[in-house]
């Protein structure tokens, strides 16, 4: 076992000391009258992170996967049509969940490395003259491939087709690390969790629902109990919770929101973009290729990298862990064995990223990769040196 941090998996992310301390707290009575003082501001302060002024935010003991289920079951009915593209492990798993809930899932198979196909969505929605499609599901940041989809383009496609389906977006590995504009993009349900951009332990599924999603809730017939928005709304109105809330995680979330706001959300996004660019320059210097098919698709929170022909990415990730005690992301699904992932989200600095690049470079050299030791690190160093002043200015 290694407990060495930083980790370079794309979630759970490194937990800053301040957050670990915030979560080390004694029991608090969630039925005491002052629980509302903790809960209400949390729900309010999450909205700007989702990019919304009008959404209702739901906090569940759970994870992002629970958030998917909350979004589906609260707004849809058995047999409803759902339009979704499969382009990675996370879009795949959400599809599987929708199928298991008895939804009529229309899958657009999309090459891994590509993002949500707005034009294909538009065509499918135009062809749905009877309005059987009730929701479009999009994974904003496909963590398996390091691909960021253009949600505004999906919204534009839905509008161009004049279709009234709900737009549900998985933002688990983007929200709080990359710009997310729920209102501007017309997103009806946005989903995240506590252990990625919020830098906390796993244990919270966080869902934001638009007024349109809440209207759909009134007629939706899929069975739900634990995740029922209505129970949550009825209790949180008075500052309560329908069951025992993970209070220590809520303390952590309070401090995480304060940290994000102290840095400034725009500065947080800029930091992620800068760290990501350094990683991509390292990849280019190694002569390797990222999985994202085009530059505009490249994620700011995770980079998936093909290993050269004849190498096994699982062996590389295992070796980095065994030899140096540092974790990187394995290739998931179709990418298993073919690609590895460097997570660069949450509480990270350029110095921390350089340590990861140095480590994976050593691991590649150990395994005989055609990569020259130091080239990736040097490329990232050059970029971070060139842009360091800007970052310091922004922080001042
Ligand atoms: C991590 C992740 C999930 C799964 O969330 P859990 O919190 O593990 O349930 C879903 N979607 C994306 C894009 C993710 O990165």
Q: Tags for this entry?
A:
binds pyridoxal-5'-phosphate, 2 domains, alpha/beta, Aspartate Aminotransferase, domain 2, 43% helix
CATH architecture of the largest domain: 3-Layer(aba) Sandwich
CATH topology-level name of the largest domain: Aspartate Aminotransferase, domain 2
Largest sheet: 7 strands, mixed
Q: How many beta-strand elements?
A: 11
Number of helices: 13
Work out the radius of gyration: 21 Å
Order of helices and strands: HHEHEHEHEEEHEEEHHHHEHEHH
Bound molecules: pyridoxal-5'-phosphate
Question: What percent strand?
Answer: 5-15%
User: Would you tell me the overall average pLDDT?
Assistant: 96
Query: Going by CATH, what is the homologous superfamily of the largest domain?
Result: Type I PLP-dependent aspartate aminotransferase-like (Major domain)
Share in helix: 40-55%
Which structural class is indicated by helix and strand composition?
alpha/beta
CATH class of the largest domain: Alpha Beta
Shape: globular
Instruction: Trace the largest sheet across and list its strands.
Output: 1-9-8-7-4-2-3
Distance between the termini: 39 Å
Walk me through this protein's architecture:
The chain has about 400 residues and is α/β, with parallel strands linked by helices. The chain has 2 domains: about 240 residues, Aspartate Aminotransferase, domain 2 (3-Layer(aba) Sandwich), CATH 3.40.640.10; about 130 residues, Alpha-Beta Complex (Aspartate Aminotransferase, domain 1), CATH 3.90.1150. The protein is built from 13 helices and 11 strands. The strands form 3 sheets. The chain has a 7-stranded mixed β-sheet with strand order 1-9-8-7-4-2-3, sandwiched between helices. A hairpin with a 4-residue loop joins β5 and β6. α9 packs across α10, α10 packs parallel to α12 and α11 crosses α12. The two termini are about 40 Å apart. The site of pyridoxal-5'-phosphate has 13 residues, from α3.
